[in-house]
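Quarterly update from the structural biology core.
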Amino acid sequence: MANGKNLRLVAICCFALLAGGEGRSTAAQAKKSPGQAPSSSPVKPLVFNFDSDPVGKLPARFRSALTGQGTPGTWVVKEDATAPSKPNVLAQTSTDTTDYRFPLAMLEEGIFKDLDLSVKFKAVGGKVDQAGGLIFRAQDADNYYIVRANALEDNYRLYHVVAGRRRQFAGVNLKVTSNQWHTLRVVAAGNRFQCYYDGELKIDATDNTFPNAGKVGLWTKADSVTHFDDFTVSALK
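Predicted structure, tokenized:
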């Protein structure tokens, strides 16, 4: 009889242990899972093709700014029959020839640290320069990173701009054809910057000047008349 009671007690204890263990495991899993997105979760990009923006004006979600000297840039939406996504582009049309002059179109929406940023650009004109670029981690109009291509110099360069003064820390010579569309792209992760030109990795560099999140935007130089389309930015997880 005693043996039977002992066996029943052992069975009850085992069941309790198993149930308790399962309960702890479920509770721990429930506590761990809220707010934890899978590592493969996509981050939805912001895409600007300017096709729904009023022609002749700066898009509402952008603001014009200037690094350096000279007059502010003239940024307007306009039609371009060659636009990658028709019909509109965002164009910088001012032809002020001041050499150290960098018109910016800064996106007001969001700040980004680790990011994937790209744009299609076409160098249309300019006697001093024919350039277009992407700015990122911008603290203001005088402090940011810039990667840009220049059709008169045939090069692709990466700079940091501190207190309005720019310093190149990476670059490569390549053919930049004017009046043709090209794609600029930068992937920034921590202090590493990978810059692509027409889909090919051309610059892979590191820098610690701006470790924090900042604004993104578009850039030109001097009298560059430049068209931009399909400006795209997404944060990296």
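Residues 43 and 237 are 7 Å apart (CA to CA).
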